[in-house]
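User: Could you go from structure to sequence for me? I need the amino acid at each position, not a summary. Structure tokens:
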């Protein structure tokens, strides 16, 4: 019990306190929508890329990519995704396109604004390498698959065939992915970062954690519990329970991952639904209200479930 309280006080309370301040600031109009957008731009285009470049440029890499780690995480994501699709189709009578988009909610973690800060606080910089691997595959893989499903379900095969170019363009213009790759290349070059450059990256990177959490809270203020609460509850349960449980079972019993890698896979899987799910639902006019409800619901509920996950992982 004391260990569980330590986890709650030392990690979860500070994290969600910053999220709460961001939420209140946006709801009370202490921060304008333009301010929220500007902060988001700073987080995604500058602070997080600086932190990831610095971590990758100075980190000791394993000899090979941990494919078993990636398979454990993403296999669990697709299990959760498939379960949501089955329930959405069978119980809530959604078409394949709508079920595919909402199914994404069972698989798509809030990896940057919440997962990255949690891993950093729980495991330090040692946890950033596993996070880097997840981020390298996370957005483009999951969004690519759901786009193919939606386009095929709606009979737009010509559009689906052109997705590869869109994915490559998205990767090439994603500052976080580009910063990670640049950091890896710098690491491989064997050149040490000059002291002024290292201090610059350290200063910028230190802003990433609090700004990401504050931005998450401010972004959540835009959403309301307004669509298909029962269905949103199912998606929330799949994301916060099925995804991390499947990641643990696959990672621990099938691949026997090392403790740090297993813990990061489970913790990242246990984070709530990412905001991109709502943006995707808006783009395809497929359950946007339910997606918004799911994001808000899963984030609130995750305050409890993440405490339990961290306690079970022995963190705190």
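Assistant: Here is the amino acid at each position, in order:
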């Amino acid at each position: 019990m004391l260990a569980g309280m330590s986890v709650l006080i030392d990690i979860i309370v500070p994290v969600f306190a910053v999220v709460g301040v961001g939420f209140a600031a946006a709801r009370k109009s202490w921060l304008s929508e333009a301010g929220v957008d500007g902060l988001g731009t700073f987080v995604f285009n500058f602070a997080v890329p600086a932190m990831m470049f610095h971590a990758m440029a100075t980190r000791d890499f394993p000899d090979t990519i941990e494919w078993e780690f990636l398979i454990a995480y993403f296999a669990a994501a697709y299990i959760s995704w498939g379960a949501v699709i089955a329930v959405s189709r069978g119980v809530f009578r959604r078409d394949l396109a709508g079920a595919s988009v909402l199914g994404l909610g069972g698989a798509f973690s809030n990896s940057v604004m919440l997962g990255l800060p949690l891993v950093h606080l729980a495991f330090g910089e040692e946890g950033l390498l596993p996070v880097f691997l997840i981020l390298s595959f996370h957005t483009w893989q999951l969004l690519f698959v759901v786009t193919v499903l939606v386009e095929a379900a709606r009979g737009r095969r010509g559009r689906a065939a052109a997705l590869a170019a869109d994915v490559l363009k998205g990767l090439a213009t994603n500052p976080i992915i580009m910063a990670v790759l640049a950091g890896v290349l710098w690491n491989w070059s064997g050149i040490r970062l000059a002291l002024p450059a290292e201090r610059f990256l350290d200063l910028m990177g230190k802003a990433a954690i609090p700004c990401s959490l504050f931005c998450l809270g401010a972004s959540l203020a835009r959403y309301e519990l307004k669509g298909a609460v029962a269905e949103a509850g199912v998606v929330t349960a799949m994301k916060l329970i099925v995804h991390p449980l499947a990641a643990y079972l696959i990672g621990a019993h099938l691949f026997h991952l090392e403790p740090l890698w297993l813990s990061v896979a489970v913790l990242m899987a246990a984070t709530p639904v990412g905001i991109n799910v709502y943006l995707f639902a808006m783009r395809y006019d497929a359950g946007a209200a339910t997606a918004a409800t799911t994001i808000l619901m899963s984030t609130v509920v995750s305050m409890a479930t993440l405490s339990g996950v961290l306690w079970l992982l022995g963190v705190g």
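One structural detail worth keeping in mind: The chain has 15 helices and no strands.
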